[in-house]
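Why does residue order matter? Because the sequence determines the fold. Keep that principle in mind as you read this record.
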Amino acid sequence: IQCKGEVGELHEIIDRWNCDPEYVIEMMQDIQERFRHISRTAIDEINRKTGKPKSHLYHIATFYKAFSLEPKGETVVQVCMGTACHVKGSAKILDSFERVLGVGTGETTADNRFTLEAVACLGACSIAPVVKIGEEVFGNVQSKDVEKLLKQAGDGGGHNKESKKEPKKSVASKIAPADLEKIAGEQKKKDDAFKKMLMVCTGTGCVAAKGFDIRDGLISALEKKGVSSDYAVVGTGCNGFCASGPIVVVQPDGIFYQKVNEKDLDEIVDSLENGSTIERLLYKNPVSGEINEKMGDIPFFSKQELIALRNKGLIDPENIDHYIARGGYDALRKVLGGMKQEDVIDEVIASGIRGRGGGGFPAGVKWKSGYEAAKERKEEIFVVCNADEGDPGAFMDRSIIETDPHSVLEGMLIGAFATGSKEGYIYIRKEYPLAQTRLAKAIDQAKAYGLLGDDILGSGFGFDIHVHRGAGAFVCGESSALMASMAGKPGEPRAKYVHSVEYGFRDKPTILNNVETWANVPEIIAKGAKWFAGIGTGDVSENPWNGSSGTKVFSLVGDVRNTGLVEVPMGITLREIVEVVGGGIPEGREFKAVQTGGPSGGCLPAAKLDMQVDFDSLTEAGSMMGSGGMIVMDDHT
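Structure:
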């Protein structure tokens, strides 16, 4: 009877993916989550219903770290050993878990309650050292916290779970171009009806420090005092200044409250009513002692210029109307309202934007090559977003999706129109559950408004997006390995002389860019190539290889006071990033090096602090831009 029940559930999971062989990795993820391992029965049933050979299925099950052929414990404890966490002492944290649980790394406790794992990177580097217990992320963990965290997990408690309130159901109402202005106007009218807006950071860093509890607690405090109609509470994505979380920003004044505790919430509400500020919650410069009341006065934000992160801390990432009110989908309307495919491609080429995911290849040139290959061969072309951000120390793409998922969708829509694509894919890391949730909601909302699907904005253009979850393989950040994984295969790279713009996913022309690149595209179209090219270094007007235009998002982590997510213009110096934005090295220690570009990059010593940061300068120095991880190390490392 038990076996029959298992087979029935397996069929349910496999059928959920329409028995499609391309989705065997997704099937296995759901099976692993339900049964805590991939059993022989599961392999047999996937083989029977999809036709995939058993040898192929076992290859997948042993290739991806998310899968196990032996049952894991009820709760998996993952200790991050990535570079940023290593710098912060994660090895000691792992030792403590081994001691308290009485097992070695990779082992399961005798009562099957916990399995202990060491993982390469959890993508929450700003709050290192990081531990993930079940689906919950804990930051700034110390050895003394281990027993408390395990007890909390055993009691079923948690501090970074999403609100239990039911989300509003999407109602299908396909919109026309003019409706964008109407939606924006109505949302602005709603916002203007409030005296103040309390913008609560609910990105992963702040969520790990009770960000959801702060958001929900403020709503309760306003209701208790009978002023909920006067003040709005908005859960935003990542504010950027992760070292100061949980963060509450009072808008439109820009009052910046940091390290907010639940016991502070009633006082915050009272301060709104009497017009005061709470000094102990304001940012205090650790060097000068100066207190900054407003966010714009804090040095961390002083050198930043926001393009990809233009909406951070200003919108609810789960509300499409908030995005539209900030000009969202206006660039798409512009494109569909009269631009030709070649015009869009030429604009992206003229902007000089180079891919923000690693190699820095000009995005527009890539689009043009794929467009021409598909046109010449009269084949379909695919558009892909690489959100498999695996470099230790990097969490930019995660934060962009958690903060502003519609900017990525809009960028992909524009790229699809330009290249003639009808179908797109987003490949996102398994380790990013909050980003996955917000991305899924954004796709549902875009479909409800008719911004994905057929005849978008009445233009006759149609495009849809599908999501693939990675299964724990660092190599799948590489383009050909990623596309192999999307096809339901082990993520094994192929020779680079086969270009994905000609033979990519399903051996068809494929345009692949990372999250940050796609998020830049709407602003390039809205404000023009000349505007974007005017930011950064070099002259890209004739050749996009002649410089580094625009801005770059970096995750600034390690031995630096101000850890977080920063977006700065190309050409800024390392010293400005480390000493001004980052606030310098804490505890009176000396700067030793900064690693850029992840494992493929290099460690730049103090002698390089005054070099400018752009694609070519970093390469000449022996490192690389990479995806944008920047790990600072002091003389103790």
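The longest strand covers residues 551-558.
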